[in-house]
């Protein structure tokens, strides 16, 4: 069974989930959480992905200490003891930070997964210190809502903070990109995200119905994780992401 271990990397806590004993590792994911979050928030995601043979290393909120998170992420991606492909996963502002690292050509990076990518400053009409309102924006999953409510390390109210992004661009990114986004995301509306992804030929964007901003931890978290695994399996076989499972036309 994959266990959540907390290591330290350049004074940054790293939450780790490894492949099951006896299973050859299939790749490594370095995860950057969003506003107010920490790596432990992604335990459910980490356990599920690692069960399929992929190592997961989750760092902290990049908006709290960008330089330290960049250093830790870069070190993990360059570490050849971690099996490839090595994929940077970002959620919320972590996605924006991951996109910036990819655009800079960070060594060791083979692909990028952007979940709940913010498309600009947080809308003023949703700026609120009310916890129930924040939960409504984040997730409809009762399990995740309970976890966030009980998590003393989680920083409430962070979602109302501006992202300091005018209009994130994906140009300059040369690695394969998968986007995951909630169809019901009011923090970063899907229509705006579509426009951003259209600017990068070859990028894939998957929307999840009934899903809000915390796309990796919402009611469709199993489908989100399965979509990630399908992307990783294609990436392992072909950097061009040739399809593996093909629905046959029976007409």
TrEMBL record:
Spans of biased composition, class Polar residues? Answer: 1-13
Q: Where is this region: Disordered?
A: 1-20
Name of the featured protein: Lysophospholipase
Organism from which the protein derives: Streptomyces himastatinicus ATCC 53653
């Amino acid at each position: 069974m994959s266990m959540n271990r907390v290591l330290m990397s350049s004074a940054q806590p790293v939450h780790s989930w490894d492949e099951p004993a006896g299973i050859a590792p299939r790749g490594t994911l370095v995860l950057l959480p969003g506003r107010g979050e920490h790596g432990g928030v992604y335990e459910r995601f980490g356990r599920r992905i690692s069960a399929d043979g992929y190592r997961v290393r989750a760092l902290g909120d990049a908006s709290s200490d960008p330089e330290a998170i960049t250093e830790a992420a870069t070190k993990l991606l360059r570490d050849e003891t971690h099996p490839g492909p090595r994929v940077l996963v970002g959620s919320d502002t972590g996605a924006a930070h991951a996109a910036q690292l990819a655009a800079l050509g960070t060594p060791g990076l083979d692909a990028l997964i952007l979940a709940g990518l913010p498309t600009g400053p947080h809308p003023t009409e949703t700026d609120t210190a009310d916890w129930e309102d924040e939960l409504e924006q984040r997730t409809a999953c009762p399990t995740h809502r309970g976890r966030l409510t009980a998590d003393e390390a989680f920083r409430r109210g962070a979602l109302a903070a501006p992202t300091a992004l005018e209009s994130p661009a994906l140009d300059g990114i040369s690695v394969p990109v998968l986007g995951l986004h909630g169809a019901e995301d009011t923090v970063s509306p899907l229509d705006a995200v579509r426009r951003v992804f259209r600017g990068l030929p070859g990028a894939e964007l998957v929307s999840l119905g009934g899903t809000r901003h915390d796309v990796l931890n919402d009611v469709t978290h199993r489908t989100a994780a399965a979509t990630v695994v399908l992307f990783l399996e294609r990436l392992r076989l072909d950097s061009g992401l040739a399809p593996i499972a093909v629905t046959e036309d029976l007409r």
